[in-house]
Amino acid sequence: MPIDEKTTTTGRPDRKRPGPALELLVHGVGGTTPERMLGDPRTVLVTGDRTAGIYRRRDDERGERRSSIAEPVPEAYCWSNLTSGNGSRALWLLLLPFMVANLAHWARPSAPAGHRGQHVYDVLVRLLALSLTVLLVGAAAEVTMDLIAWQCAGDTHCTANKSWLAFMSDGGWWAAPGRRLVVGATVPALLTGLLWWLSHRTWSAYESASPPPGAGTGDGAASGAERPVLSLPGFWYGRRLVARLRAAHTAAGLLTPASALWAAAAAADSGGTLAALGRVLAVPLLAGWAAVVYVVCRRGRCEAELDRGDDRWAVRTLPAFALGVLLLTAVHTAWSRPGWTGDGHLPGTGLFGVLAAAQGVLIAALAVTAWRLQRTAGGEAPPVLKGLAGPVVAMLACAVAGVFSGGLAQRLADWLDRGATPGEGALAGPPVELSWQATVIPLVLLTVLALALLAAARSWRLRKQIVTEVPGMYADEDPSPLEHPNKPRTLSIAGAVSRAQLTDFGPTVLGTAALIVLLLGGGAVAGAWITGEVPGAAARGGPGPLPALAQTGQALGSWLMGAGFVLLLTMGRRAYKDASARRSIGILWDVGTFWPRAAHPFAPPCYAERAVPDLTWRITKWTEAHPGGRLVVSGHSQGSVLAAAAVWQLAPGDRGRVALLTYGSPLHRLYGRWFPGYFGPGRLAALHGDVDTWTNLWRQTDPIGGPVGLPDGHGSEVDRGPLKDPLCYGRTAERPLPSPILGHSDYQADPVFDAERRELLGRLASVPVQRGAAVSRPPADPPDAAG
């Protein structure tokens, strides 16, 4: 066993005892318990809290003195409660479009630092994110102001048996159209306030952690403009940008109902004092929108240093100004106007068509910018979708937001009009753009179904090919059980491998679906603008079965959009009561909320802005307390991404004293291909240059993990695999019962895991302790273990 040089309290080297060894375990998506990670029901919280903390076995609470290369002290960092702790967080499903839009920011292609295209790309994504806020707040305004307050409250057929609308329909003070609209405007305003409160509260709870002093201050293997972005000290501390964007989006949410009120009042005022006041109110209204766009476009993320600035004028003044404009507009709209009656659609509902067209233009511009950035990416292998992953993800965000807004409006209109097809009953219904968008939903679903069948056929063909290769995977076993290629065992192994490779087919499915959605969505907006009627009415009198098909498509699409929205709410309710469902939903957030909120401040909070500083602090302080110690950061699945991000944040001298053990890791397969600017081959090669002791384990049956995929000359030093899965084909003396197919789980069950960890610790033992390291003073109660 290699003997480390350990410094005693007298400062003299002690060669009689090896330095302590620590294995810091980081779990993956879905979370787990510290008892399961450590294999012991008796655990103790060493440091941290119940939301995210580090645990040890009770017997290892002060175990540094007993550690060895064969048996390091295990520690478990549990972060699952950051994403799926209680049932109320299932309501974050409603923020899904915001989360997906935020991912579009990080999916940009790799490009040289300071390239102008990066700034243009970031601005386009932030503008697209702003349009989503306006769209969803506008959908709430459409429901409460147009459908309920304007149309239904003014129609006796609709208000029948709706006692909750009596105060707006009985001829009283609130029955005036302007006052009904003011009542309806309170809901989108309160929704905006709720989004602001959630964003502010989650920042304080999850994302306010600062990195340790000196973290990310060195260049490491890369220097200058080519320094990996994740090694910058301000990467996991985006407080200033989130505060600015939160103020801008809050102001936009308040200005949306204010604009609807102003448009309705302007349509009713043909002249006189009220019309003049309306023209005066237009000035602060337009100034507010201009300020919102300016704040969104002016400043991006500052990652080279901790950005602790406080833009008080934007953070405090802009939302207060927008609230004041809303109140003034509400007073102006509520003023008595004899003879004003509500009829048809609320003026200004053409906003949805304008937003859809603007989003299409932004996505097209984003695609052009991403294509130009990809051309400057150098000799690296092209990422997924030839660098167009960002525009595809942005299109997905717009599609989900469209389903949310359209589904809510369509279902409520159907209920208010007592089952009539929206737009063809007694009420005017929602804007015609939403009805046309509903009509194309069945076509989108048919496209997705066709792509799913294509993926299934591809998997079936691949399984037939792999069946013939399974015997070669177990050539060291008795060949008799392997002679029949159609045995259920062989088919199960081949099926697991083929299904795991479906992950690599995902980009094709998403890219094709995004293109179809873009084309159909553009056609829907064009159809609404050309005809000005809902699809069923526009096709009436057309040739053959066209009218029936149009009406059926509109009714079916309307039902599907509403069903999708209701399904989301049902999933949230079930997750509130069912812990297993809550854990499944948490997996979605584990993947989607890894990145900071760089584009949309109302997205679910970034857990990595708490988890990465936690890990960096722990590694830094443990290595300072134990200069001769050896530390292996052991990350599974998403935990491997957190581990790599934490190691990137270490000071250069500390990176060489830490080993990295990853398994089931999506570092290259998912993150490297979808987010090449941050986890591309060049970035991972730079990390390997800083952390020479790195091993990655992978299986062919794993649908998430895979090889790191470093350039030639690097990858062979990191990757170990593919590991056998199952460990044995048949029954052996060591394993008399059939071995299970593990796929993405239980990498520790493979004997290779312990051997590779032991090798990493042995290689660390030969790393000399740097001069100037803190002197280790092992007291009776080590401070790092006392918590």
Automatic annotation (TrEMBL):
Entry annotated with the keyword Protein biosynthesis: no
Region Disordered, annotated ranges: 1-20
Alphabetized UniProt keyword annotations: Membrane, Transmembrane, Transmembrane helix
Transmembrane segments: 119-141, 181-198, 247-268, 274-297, 318-335, 350-373, 385-409, 434-456, 509-532, 552-572
Basic and acidic residues bias locations: 1-17
Key word Membrane present: yes
Protein name: Integral membrane protein
Organism of origin: Streptomyces smaragdinus
